TrEMBL record:
Protein's UniProt keywords contain GTP-binding: no
SUPFAM superfamilies tied to this protein: Immunoglobulin
GO cellular component: external side of plasma membrane
Pfam family, one: V-set
Gene for this chain: Mog_10
Stated name of the protein: MOG protein
Localisation per UniProt entry: Membrane
Xref: InterPro entries: Ig-like_dom (IPR007110), Ig-like_dom_sf (IPR036179), Ig-like_fold (IPR013783), Ig_sub (IPR003599), Ig_V-set (IPR013106), IgSF_BTN/MOG (IPR050504)
Length: 190
């Protein structure tokens, strides 16, 4: 059996079939992988202890995510931060540390936005989060880095603040005393 355009050389026919099979396979793999692609911000999200933070993540190309399974997990410990499936938030497997503090922002789901809000940030929230998405046939994930910084004197005890204030006042007093002593020495020399 030859090729449709009249070539009947057996080795050319088998090469053409092999090439055609490879091309079809590559096309199918490409189509399968293009079905679901999750994209993170590509840079760390920064926030301060006590604030709220939004971890951005979206589907590319844009696609309705309301019927997908979206799971945010901590990368280092692989535990669930937030779980959403078929229009519902599932809290059964959520880490206790995030109970009542997470929300998948639903306004953007129809446009493929999978953003997660974490309220009342704690120092322990610092680290990598993985946004995972699945629809039964395809799966993808993206990593989002959250950098949580403490505000100045956030964890300071009252005695630490008092000690710092006393040390600053002592340094100012010594500096002022040295200045006045030198000034008096110059006046006496004149």
């Amino acid at each position: 059996m030859g090729l449709p355009w009249g070539c009947s050389h057996p080795s050319l026919t088998s090469h053409a079939r092999g090439l055609l099979t490879s091309l079809v396979t590559l096309l199918l793999l490409r189509l399968g992988s293009a079905q679901l692609r999750v994209v993170g911000p590509g840079h760390p999200v920064t926030a301060t202890v006590g604030q709220d933070a939004v971890l951005p993540c979206h589907l590319s190309p844009q696609r309705d995510a309301r019927t997908l399974e979206v799971k945010w997990i901590r990368d280092s410990i692989s535990e669930t931060v937030h779980h959403y499936r078929n229009g519902e938030d599932l809290y059964g497997e959520q880490m206790e540390a995030y109970a009542g503090r997470t929300e998948l922002l639903r306004d953007g789901l129809s446009a493929g936005s999978l953003d997660l809000r974490i309220t009342g940030l704690r120092p322990s929230d610092d680290g990598q989060y993985v946004c995972t998405v699945g629809d039964g046939h395809a799966y993808d994930e993206a990593i989002v880095e959250l950098e949580v910084s403490a505000p100045f004197f956030h964890n300071a005890q009252p005695w630490m603040v008092a000690l710092a204030l006393v040390l600053v006042l002592l340094a100012v007093s010594i500096g002022l005393g040295v200045y006045l002593y030198r000034k008096q020495g110059k006046l006496a020399a004149e």
